[in-house]
Amino acid sequence: MAQANPRIALVTGASSGIGKATAQALATTGYRVYGTSRRADGGTVNGITMLPCDVTDDASVSKLFEDVLAKAGRIDLLVNNAGFGVVGGAEESSVDQARAMFDVNIFGVMRMTNAVLPAMRRQKSGRIVNIGSLLGLIPAPYNAIYSASKHAVEGYTESLDHELRAFGIRATVVEPAYTNTAFEENKVKPDQALDIYDQIRAATEQFMHAAVRKGDAPEIVAQTVLEAAKAAKPKRRYPVTRWHGRHACCAVSFPKMPLTRA
């Protein structure tokens, strides 16, 4: 039976993977859910209304919130999930490529958060759950740009949470490890690849592909998002990994750079 006054949730990057699983889990537990993707058509399937939004575009973000508030009147939960990665040596990504990643992975989070806060302050309540990464807590080689963007999400969210508590709003980070989604397949290539990294880059990609295939189901991450969304006293961060009882860094290991001689 549908709730008379369901809580309203907004999930970015909800067309696949963690975002889709999260949107479905929220809908199943009684939320009225709006999901976003750049090519959404506004249709509703399985209780999830998909709306178009490009988190790198201020006008697109503003229109999204105007549309959701016009339809629902409030927003109780924002899940910032949209993001992408790149695998390669740190020097193989140009500043332009790094800027493009930060524009989605951290500035997109900031745009969405800035847009939702006025409504949440008026309500005197709200929850923001940012999808970080274990690599935002424990950096890994050949993921420097991605790790840097997720470290930024960590710092931003923790500071934000302290600022918002006085308004009845909380912010927290969910940190997936390897997750069995198409994220790894959709990663971009370094835009200034160097021959010296070809061997280790290929080995790292092979390693990560295997780890992702054996990784957590996106539904496991979605359940952690639900926990973070509903907790009366949310934790600063919620690591997601099947390696219970072991330090999270045990789940992250990468091939070593082969030694070369002059």
TrEMBL record:
<protein>
    <submittedName>
        <fullName>Oxidoreductase</fullName>
    </submittedName>
</protein>
<keyword id="KW-0560">Oxidoreductase</keyword>
<comment type="similarity">
    <text>Belongs to the short-chain dehydrogenases/reductases (SDR) family.</text>
</comment>
<dbReference type="InterPro" id="IPR002347">
    <property type="entry name" value="SDR_fam"/>
</dbReference>
<dbReference type="InterPro" id="IPR051911">
    <property type="entry name" value="SDR_oxidoreductase"/>
</dbReference>
<dbReference type="InterPro" id="IPR036291">
    <property type="entry name" value="NAD(P)-bd_dom_sf"/>
</dbReference>
<dbReference type="Pfam" id="PF00106">
    <property type="entry name" value="adh_short"/>
</dbReference>
